[in-house]
Amino acid sequence: MLYNVFTNILAVVFVLGVMILIHELGHFIAAKYFGIKVHVFSFGFGPRLFGFKRGDTDYRVCALPLGGYVKMAGEQASDETTGSEDEFQSKPRWQRFVVAIMGPAMNIFLAIFLLTGLYMYRYEKPAYQEGPAVIGWVEDNTPAAEAGFQPGDRIVSINNRENPNWQDIEILVVSNPNQPMDVDVERNGQIVSGTITPEPQGRTQLGAAGWFPSMPAALQVVEPNMPASDAGLQAGDVITAVNGEPITFWPKVSEIIQENQGGVLDITYRRNGVEHTTRLTPVQGPGEDAEPRWRIGVAFHTEVITRQLSLGDAFSQSLATNVRFAGLIFEFVGKIFGGEMSARTLEGPIGIARLSGQAARQSWADLLSLMAAISLNLGIFNLFPIPVLDGGVILLLLIEGTIRRDLSRQFKERVTQVGFAALMLLAVFVIYNDIVKSLPERFERFLP
Fold it and tell me: Could you give the CA distance from residue 41 to residue 440 in angstroms, rounded to a whole number?
């Protein structure tokens, strides 16, 4: 427990530290290029711990590492200005625009750069995401079961998207809770149409359909002196049926074992292309959450496609991935404000710390992938037209450019105050949201 907390803290300081340092570096480089005086380049907030001064700029590290800022001469509406040519407000609007947009742009460039490097080293995806989207399992009492979909169905169209892969389907499902979606499947050579309405699920209230991809139950590990090994199963075998029920999605094996409550199981498996049968009796042992579970002593293999892409292919794939997820960010935000998705999907600093710690404990590749996603989110979030954010500065500059005069200092101060209050309310909400999602589920009924 303490190890997880410690790694969460270290990971989030590293992840957010890099994100914000890159963001502020964008503003700093643009400001210096246009001759704007920069008083402070700070990593972190709060009391100054250490640093050095070069020219007019104090480069400092402060006590609170979850942030940073660049303080330019005459940048804020409340700053006293002298009209000096090295002040932010003295520069042409197009230069101020470039300074404002360079922060978010650097975050977006970082996301593209990280994924490009990662894909050149290792580009991987689950094998089920390539090829036809064949249903391997339909869970009982779920939207997919109620709509009549069956294992073996091939999804040929969903929400007017033709021949989707499982990644397309997963994204459409999670982003459309409580929204009916038209689905066409191919079954026994015929097209069968239906409508599925994903139900909100879990603490994030993302959509869930209850269907799962076809994933063979191939054994990766068979533990010695356990029921599976005693019954003759070996690594490389593929379980094709349990108690006569076909298995085309390996997690279903675990569900059948738990439902059977320790009863005898008839296992059909394939080895070297030949079908065999055996019988075994599960035993009880601790599971991942320390709760007792029925076990047979096997671990399944999830096939992963791994490639090393060339620089050009890696860049193209990275660009496509970031464009797709940028579109999802705007879609999710629009649906949250439109009431079509729960605001519980938002993650704040506590949620980011949890995700960063999990990624760091898994592999550096997972951490880099998460960093790319957070950097993209940070870049796009800062482009939203909220005063105090870069997008608010850009909006005011566009308004001034349209009316061909500067807005009054008093007006800018009031707008900034309103924007700051809105940003603080949002911060309070996402932190509260994080805390609620971190509490045991039995406490959820006491909280709105």
Answer: 41
Q: What distance in Å separates the CA atoms of residue 291 and residue 287, rounded to the nearest whole number?
A: 6
Per-position DSSP letters for 424-446, written without gaps between them: HHHHHHHHHHHHHHHS-GGGGGG
Backbone angles phi, psi at 306, to 5 degrees: -120, 130
Quick one: pLDDT at residue 443? 47
Q: Is the pLDDT of residue 421 over 70?
A: yes
Percent of the chain at pLDDT above 70?
91
Maximum distance among all alpha carbons in the chain? 87
- Distance in angstroms (rounded) separating the CA atoms of residues 189 and 239: 26
Q: What is the pLDDT of residue 230?
A: 94
The token pair that represents 421 in the structure block: 């209050």
Cα gap 365→367, rounded to integer Å: 5
Tell me the CATH architecture of domain 128-211.
Answer: Roll (2.30)
Axis crossing angle, helix 349-362 with helix 409-438, rounded to the nearest 10: 50
Q: Which of 283, 251, 280, 252 is nearest to 268 (CA)?
A: 280
Predicted TM-score (pTM) of this structure: 0.81
Percent of the chain scored above 90 by pLDDT? 45
Spot the catalytic one: 24, 75, 87, 347. Answer: 24
State the angle between helix axes of 390-403 and 409-438 in degrees (0 to 180), rounded to the nearest 10.
150
Contacts of 103 (CB under 8 A, 6+ apart): 23, 24, 26, 27, 379, 382, 390
Q: How far apart are CA 30 and CA 92, in angstroms?
A: 13
pLDDT 10s digits, 345-360: 777 666 666 666 777 6
Beta pairing, strands 211-213 & 57-72: unpaired
CA distances from 200 to 145, 244, 413 (A): 16, 33, 41
- Two tokens, residue 352: 């980011």
More confident residue, 374 or 440: 374
Residue 393 tokens read as 């500065």
Say what the pLDDT of residue 423 is.
Answer: 77
Catalytic, 139? Answer no
**CATH topology identical between 128-211 and 217-300:** yes
Rounded distance between C-alpha atoms, residue 385 and residue 352, angstroms? 23
Asked if pLDDT for residue 439 goes beyond 60, the answer is: no
Residue 186 above 90 pLDDT? Answer: yes
pLDDT at 440 over 60: no
Helices H, strands E: what count in the chain? 11, 20
The Cα–Cα gap between 59 and 40 comes to 6
Tokens read off for 297: 């002593």
Domain ranges, ordered by start, for the chain:
2-121+366-446, 128-211, 217-300
pLDDT at position 446, please?
Answer: 45
Domain 217-300 CATH class label: mainly beta
